[in-house]
């Protein structure tokens, strides 16, 4: 049973998250008549089943724990995975900056561990469609397991296809195409063919060399607006008495995001391309070059 997007009393089969006074967390799946063991004694599941979230219960040794259903951003960072996930801070950016709306026709590759898939399914709602592509069968199994945990057994509008997105894609009219794979520039012809005018191409790339190659390939392809790239850093704040200051640790670099919009057929963007002028990387130039850029 999914524990997400629910309210009301806690039921057997649901996951809950127990937090102790020091902030230590335990994820527990509720089962009537059983108990969860901690260093501070046993916690009876029956003390939680039938009660609302937000209660404080005590272990057999009197240690207090507060009880909530996990939130999606808490779950995705701890779910089983075979490959790096898109972190909540970046998933939130994708949903807003790639403008994922209820009813949108979205395609993503690769699906990896299903983290972004979970956010996309929420954002498109029951009227939207999401075609997820994953080249590795073993990773696709993780996606299914994780997505079912979050969105239930048959999320409406969702298909997961195992295979190389460049060869097996079936969608032809795509509103939003999200790429999280090692060589997203190889999908740009596909994006040009299948994104509707005004559609958004969005890539999540971990390194500057991937970013540079992606951007140059979009420009070379033509028919897209000038790409925009950015990154998001997330830093919590320490809030204790007068010691109100940024935390020492933060979620720094995960990846860059880059978006571009599809122009109507035959149209060229009015935005000035920041593509280097011909000859800019000529034989006398010895500085850095965008990845994949061939000297003229
Ligand atoms: C970093 S992971 C994606 C993580 C995922 N977005 C998430 O949030 O859990 C990249 C995935 O792309 C898959 N992949 C790479 N090339 C692909 C292709 N041509 N078609 C489909 N999937 C591909 C890889 O197998 C890998 O699982």
Radius of gyration: 23 Å
CATH architecture heading of the largest domain: 3-Layer(aba) Sandwich
**Can you tell me the CATH topology of the largest domain?**
Rossmann fold
Bound molecules: S-adenosylmethionine
Strand composition percent:
25-35%
Give the overall average pLDDT. Answer: 93
Largest sheet: 7 strands, mixed
What is the count of distinct domains? 2
Please report the distance between the alpha carbons of the first and last residues.
60 Å
Structural class: alpha/beta
Coarse morphology? elongated
User: In what order do the strands lie side by side in the largest sheet?
Assistant: 9-8-7-10-11-15-12
Order of helices and strands: EEEEEEHHEHEHEHEHEHEEEE
Structure write-up:
It is a single chain. The protein has helices at residues 72-76, 88-97, 115-124, 137-151, 165-168, 188-194, 208-221; strands at residues 15-19, 25-29, 35-38, 41-44, 55-58, 64-68, 105-109, 129-134, 158-162, 174-179, 195-205, 228-230, 237-240, 243-246, 256-261. α3 packs across α4 (137-151). The strands form four sheets. The chain has a seven-stranded mixed sheet. A four-stranded antiparallel sheet has the order 2-1-6-5, with no helix packed on it. The chain has a two-stranded antiparallel sheet with strand order 3-4. By secondary structure, it is an alpha/beta fold. It is elongated. The termini are far apart. 22% of the residues lie in helices and 26% in strands. The chain has two domains: 15-70, Vcp-like ATPase, Chain A, domain 2 (Roll), CATH 3.10.330.20; 74-261, 3-Layer(aba) Sandwich (Rossmann fold). It has seven helices and 15 strands. The structure holds S-adenosylmethionine. Residues 83-86, 109-116, 133-136, 139, 164-166, 180-182 line the site of S-adenosylmethionine.
């Amino acid at each position: 049973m999914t524990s997400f997007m629910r309210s009301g009393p806690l039921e057997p089969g649901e996951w809950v998250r127990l937090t102790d006074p020091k902030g230590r967390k335990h994820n527990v799946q509720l089962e009537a008549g059983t108990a969860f063991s901690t260093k501070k004694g046993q916690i009876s599941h029956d003390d939680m089943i039938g009660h609302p979230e937000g209660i404080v219960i005590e272990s057999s040794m009197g240690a207090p724990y507060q009880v909530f259903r996990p939130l999606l951003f808490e779950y995705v960072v701890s779910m089983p995975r075979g490959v790096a996930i898109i972190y909540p801070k970046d998933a939130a950016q994708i949903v807003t900056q790639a403008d994922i709306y209820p009813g949108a026709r979205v395609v993503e590759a690769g699906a990896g561990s299903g983290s972004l898939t979970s956010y996309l399914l929420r954002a498109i709602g029951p009227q939207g469609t999401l075609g997820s592509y994953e080249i590795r069968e073993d990773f696709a199994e993780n996606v299914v397991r994780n997505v079912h945990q979050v969105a239930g057994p048959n999320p409406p509008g969702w298909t997961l296809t195992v295979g190389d997105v460049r060869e097996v894609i079936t969608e032809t009219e795509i509103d939003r195409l999200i790429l999280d794979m090692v060589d997203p520039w190889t999908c740009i012809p596909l994006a040009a063919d299948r994104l509707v005018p005004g559609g958004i191409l969005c890539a999540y790339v971990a390194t500057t060399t991937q970013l540079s190659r992606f951007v140059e390939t979009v420009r070379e392809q033509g028919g897209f607006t000038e790409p925009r790239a950015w990154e998001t850093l997330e830093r919590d704040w320490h809030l204790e008495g007068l010691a109100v200051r940024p935390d020492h640790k933060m979620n720094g670099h995960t990846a860059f995001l880059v978006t571009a919009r599809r122009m109507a057929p035959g149209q060229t963007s009015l935005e000035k391309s920041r593509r280097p002028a011909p000859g800019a990387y000529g034989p006398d130039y010895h500085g850095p070059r965008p990845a994949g850029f061939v000297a003229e």
